[in-house]
C-alpha cells in the first residue's frame, strides 16, 4: 500500500505531489473541493428564497385585485371602462399596483389591454423578456355552491388568477444562467383568490 502511494505520487505532476505531501497542501485541496459546493448551496438558497418571496407577492396581488373588485359596483352587464366592466378594471389595476409596489416587473401590462374572454370572464396576457407569459384573469361571476344554511344555493364570487414567470438566477440544468443569458430559466408562479361579491 505504501509503495503504491509512493508510485502514484512519483508519477503525479510536481504541484500535486507537493500539495498531497504537505498538511497545508491538503487543506488547500479540501477548500478547492468544498468551496464551489458551498457557494452553489448559498446561491441556491438565495434563489429559492427569492422565488418564495415572489410567490407571496403574487398571491398578495391576486388578493388585492379580488378585494378591490368585490367591493366595486357589479357592472358586468354594462361595460363602461374601455370595453370591459369597471369592476374588472379595478381588479387588474389593484393587482398590477401590488406587483409594482413589490418591484416585480409586469412585462409592460396595463389595464388598457384587458378584453372579454367569456360571458363574465376577462383576461389579459403580456409576453415577458424571459420567454414566459404574464397573465391576469378576472371572473366577476364565479359560482360557488353554499350549503351552510341547509338549503343549497349558489353564491356569486369574484375569482382573480395571477400567473407570473419568475426568472431564476441559477439554472440547475446548465450552470449559472446569468453567465450567458439572464433569462435562461424561469418557473411559472400562479395564485388564485376567490372572494364573495359584496355588490
In short:
The protein has 199 residues and is an alpha+beta fold. It has helices spanning 2-11, 14-21, 23-71, 86-101, 177-180; strands at residues 115-116, 121-127, 133-146, 153-167, 170-171, 175-176, 186-196.
Please explain how this structure is put together.
With 199 residues, this protein is an alpha+beta fold. It has one domain (17-196). Helix content is 44%, strand content 27%. It contains five helices and seven strands, in the order H-H-H-H-E-E-E-E-E-E-H-E. The protein has helices at residues 2-11, 14-21, 23-71, 86-101, 177-180, and strands spanning 115-116, 121-127, 133-146, 153-167, 170-171, 175-176, 186-196. The strands form two sheets. A five-stranded antiparallel sheet has the order 1-2-3-4-7, covered by helices on one side. Helix 2 packs across helix 3 (23-71) and helix 3 packs antiparallel against helix 4 (86-101).
Task: Give the number of helices.
Answer: 5
Arrangement of strands in the largest sheet = 1-2-3-4-7
Distance between termini?
85 Å
Q: Tell me, what's the shape?
A: elongated
Q: Which percent range fits the helix content?
A: 40-55%
- The structure class reads alpha+beta
Report mean pLDDT, rounded to a whole number.
78
* Total E-strand runs: 7
Topology, element by element:
Blueprint: H1 2-11, H2 14-21, H3 23-71, H4 86-101, E1 115-116, E2 121-127, E3 133-146, E4 153-167, E5 170-171, E6 175-176, H5 177-180, E7 186-196
Antiparallel strand pairs: 1-2, 2-3, 3-4, 4-7, 5-6
Amino acid at each position: 500500500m505504501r509503495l503504491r502511494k509512493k508510485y502514484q505520487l512519483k508519477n503525479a505532476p510536481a504541484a500535486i505531489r507537493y500539495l498531497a505531501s504537505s498538511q497545508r497542501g491538503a487543506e488547500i485541496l479540501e477548500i478547492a473541493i468544498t468551496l464551489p459546493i458551498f457557494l452553489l448551496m448559498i446561491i441556491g438558497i438565495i434563489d429559492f428564497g427569492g422565488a418564495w418571496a415572489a410567490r407571496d407577492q403574487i398571491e398578495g396581488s391576486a388578493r388585492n385585485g379580488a378585494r378591490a373588485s368585490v367591493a366595486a359596483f357589479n357592472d358586468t352587464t354594462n361595460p363602461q371602462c374601455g370595453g370591459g366592466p369597471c369592476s374588472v378594471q379595478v381588479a387588474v389595476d389593484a393587482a398590477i399596483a401590488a406587483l409594482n409596489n413589490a418591484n416585480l416587473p409586469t412585462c409592460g401590462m396595463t389595464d388598457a389591454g384587458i378584453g372579454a374572454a367569456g360571458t363574465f370572464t376577462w383576461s389579459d396576457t403580456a409576453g415577458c423578456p424571459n420567454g414566459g407569459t404574464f397573465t391576469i384573469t378576472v371572473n366577476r361571476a364565479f359560482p360557488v355552491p353554499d350549503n351552510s344554511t341547509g338549503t343549497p344555493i349558489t353564491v356569486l364570487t369574484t375569482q382573480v388568477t395571477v400567473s407570473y414567470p419568475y426568472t431564476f438566477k441559477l439554472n440547475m440544468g446548465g450552470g449559472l444562467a446569468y453567465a450567458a443569458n439572464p433569462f435562461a430559466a424561469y418557473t411559472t408562479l400562479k395564485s388564485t383568490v376567490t372572494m364573495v361579491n359584496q355588490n
